[in-house]
Amino acid sequence: MKNKIAVQSQMLTVILLCLLFIPSAYSFYLSEQFVDNRYGYSIRYPSSWNASKHRSGVVLANINSGDGKSGLQIRLTNSNRGINGFINNYISDFTNQMQATLISRNQTMFGYRRGYSITFRSRRGSVSYFLKTYILPVENTSKFYIFQAGTPFGMKNQVEPVLDGIAASFKIIR
Predict the structure, then answer these.
(1) Whether residues 107 and 47 fall in one domain
(2) What is the value of pTM for the model shown?
(3) Is 61 in contact with 137 (CB distance < 8 Å)?
(4) Judgement on whether residues 24 and 93 belong to the same structural domain of the protein
(5) Which helix (H) or strand (E) holds 71?
(6) Quick one: pLDDT band at residue 138, thresholds 50, 70, 90?
(7) Interior CA angle at 86 toward 85 and 89, to 5°?
(8) pLDDT at res. 1
(9) ∠ CA 86-82-134, rounded to 5°
(10) Is the pLDDT of residue 4 over 60?
(11) Residue 33 has what pLDDT?
């Protein structure tokens, strides 16, 4: 009985130590920083990825994996619908335009602010994709930062934590 308790205690200690070091893992591999002074934000990403400004409509920037299979677009848009109306409309438009199936819709924390994540599954030709959207309302405005991310579905477990880390690093610098 004492051995069982000792083993359980050691396992709990290992789990707690792992949990303590998860935030530092993000900062370790998110070694590059992209700053957009015009739109007042910064975001971190892995050195094996690349970032570039992309001014087209609501798109502000692209962050892509080195192999080009995964990526994230940063967008800024206005909506007078309120957050729930905006999200419901976004899901409806996205599922129709991308022939996507909704997987989940969650409230989450990223960029040190409360936001939302929405996941979808979509298909282009013979390839199935995991798509994840992060939505961050800008306080006291009708604006929303939107991060649209995607990767082949078979790479989801490998890439989603990277995308989550990138989104979590987002900071408004104004």
Answers:
(1) yes
(2) 0.80
(3) no
(4) no
(5) strand 71-78
(6) confident
(7) 85
(8) 60
(9) 45
(10) no
(11) 95
Long-range contacts of residues 99-107, Cβ cutoff 8 Å, at least 24 apart? 99/123, 100/131
Ranges of H-type helices in the chain: 2-29, 82-97, 156-168
| Helix, strand and coil in the chain, % to nearest 5 | 35, 45, 20
- Is residue 146 domain-shared with residue 159, that is, in the same domain? yes
Q: Is the pLDDT assigned to residue 69 strictly greater than 70?
A: yes
CA of 60: how far to CAs of 74, 93, 128, 172, in Å? 6, 20, 26, 14
- The label of the residue with tokens 């819709």 reads 105
Please give the Cα distance from 66 to 141 (Å, whole number). Answer: 35
Q: Could you list the residue range(s) of the whole structural domain that residue 64 is in?
A: 31-172
pLDDT digits (tens, 9 = 90+) for 31-49: 999 999 999 899 999 999 9
pLDDT number for residue 112: 72
